[in-house]
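Quick one, T. Sequence first:
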Amino acid sequence: MASGRNTSISIAKGIAIILMVAGHAECPGTLMSLIYIFHMPLFFITAGYFFSRRNVEQPWTYCCKRFKGLYVPFVKWSLFFLLIHNVMFQVGILNETYGNWEGGVTHPYTMTQMMQRAVHIFTAMAGYDEFLAGAFWFFRALLITSILFMVLFSLIDSHTRRLKGWHIAALISLAAIGFAALRISYGLKVVNVVQGGIRETWGMLFFGIGVVYRHFEHTRGFNPRHWGYWAAMAAAVAILAVGTMEHWAGMNLSPKIRDVATLPLTGMAGFFVTHQISRLIDSCEWWLKRVLVHCGEMTLYIYVFHIISFKVVSLVKIAYYGLDPRQIGCHMVIHDHHDDLFWILYTIAGVALPLLWMWGYRHLKSAIYSLSGSTQS
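Structure tokens:
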């Protein structure tokens, strides 16, 4: 990975994770349509932004970092939510009455089911608790994307030394678009990848776009004083506006052939606008910058704990409307009165509580180490 601390990218990731939480909190329809057409592509683009030829020259180091940063936390937190699944039924957090928008509910696991899920967690990065860890597909998708991109980059680079890095990245992205078109047209699936590999295909596309974007950022500079910058910004905003009004799709599991043309546009446009806003925020030393940088650097924990954090707000909503207490089991949030402003409270809790819990955990851990050290001395 590139050395140094790029706070503008951290801010962009902070904005993206807040938007993701707002989307899961069932924010108003127009805002949700806007969020879903670019927020997940943004994470893959930011990952590709830091890819360089050094990763190809040190493949083992790169793969170890990817496994440590994605596979290990996936397994750890998937097993954690698997172990507490039945406990959540006993305390009432989960139940067999209320579930998702489609009417699906979850059930307590038998010992056999828990063991099978544990095997899937270790071997296929699947089997995670759908109601407590439903967003964990991202860990698998980014891990496969990162390593496969490195392998393809290395193969192409070893046979075509004249190509620049961003040329190779562009070729991989174009290949991903082509495969996506074939997959959607003929119903193809990557059978050895859970969920058929479509999200990993999109991930390859946007990972490569991140490499290309960084090249042009460094060579062209994206200077706000140049008319081309504002033309690009206007075009990006227009794409997002049209995509929102037309309800273009994001990285879902049931893509249509239209998505092959629209998703790359909205993904690139969303990242460009978000990153330029992030650069503006990064240029000023104020509280918003510090908050967003911290959120961007803590995206892992917000991603892991935001769904369980929603339950706190669900308790408040149940008390406010006098709802059936079992509605706390709704996934991801309570669906009744979904046109109210509780989505704002859900968003705040989904971001703030994971950060608060990690702050408390680290201080407790530090205090325990300090106490054990003083005891030994």
